[in-house]
Design brief:
This protein is an alpha+beta fold. It contains two helices and two strands, in the order H-H-E-E. The chain is globular, with a radius of gyration of 13 Å. The chain starts with 7 loop residues before the first helix and ends with a strand.
Amino acid sequence: MMAVGDTLRQNQALLLTLHKGELKERPSTGVGLSDMLLDNDPIYWRTEIKEQLEMDGQTVAKVRITENGVEIEASY
């Protein structure tokens, strides 16, 4: 028997780091967060993150972009 733990944070990290088109099975999946470094539109990124998490089936309570990183409150 194999036990599987909570994968929420792992799935969130994957969605944030993937760029659209990298996942061949689902080309529209991914935020491409590394592109945010040279951008100055946090509202776009907050919306994109929320949409991607919801497409993954997560219920998103809050996405916040701060100087220290991205804060996500979500669950399956």
